Amino acid sequence: SESDERHPLTQIKIADIICAKYPCDRKTVGRNIGFLIKVGYPIVKTKKGFYLDNKRFTIDESLFILNAVRASPLKNEKEKEDIVQRLADILNKTYR
Fold it and tell me: Do the Cβ atoms of 52 and 42 come closer than 8 Å?
């Protein structure tokens, strides 16, 4: 959820993110990425790092959804912000 085509992550950055919860290093990340690619995950390797392809929504679609909720006259501001926060948890962190 932290990467996309415009924001790939290096193995070191992925290891740093994982280390917040579990012990991990760059080599472990590399082995696991290789395994995930081998079993069919759409992980793309670029010169700048890796990202998971085939996201559920594009950046533009994500922004459209969030803006549509914010502009809706059917809910009050507090309700809309609650919905936006819950949607943001689903959408890629990069798209927020």
Answer: yes
What dihedral do alpha carbons 78, 84, 88, 94 form, nearest 10°? -110
- Determine contact, residues 28/15, Cβ cutoff 8 Å: yes
Residue 76: band (very low, low, confident or very high) from pLDDT cuts 50, 70, 90: very high
Residue 11 pLDDT > 90 = yes
Q: Is 50 left (phi over 0), alpha (psi -120 to 50) or beta?
A: beta
CA–CA gap between residue 63 and residue 39 (Å, rounded) = 32
Length of the chain in terms of residues written? 96
Q: Is 86 helix (H, G, I), strand (E, B) or coil?
A: helix
CA dist., res. 21 & res. 70, Å (int)? 33
Write the DSSP symbol of residue 13: H
CA distance 14 to 90: 19
pTM of the predicted model over 0.90 = no
Tokens 């991990």, located at residue: 24
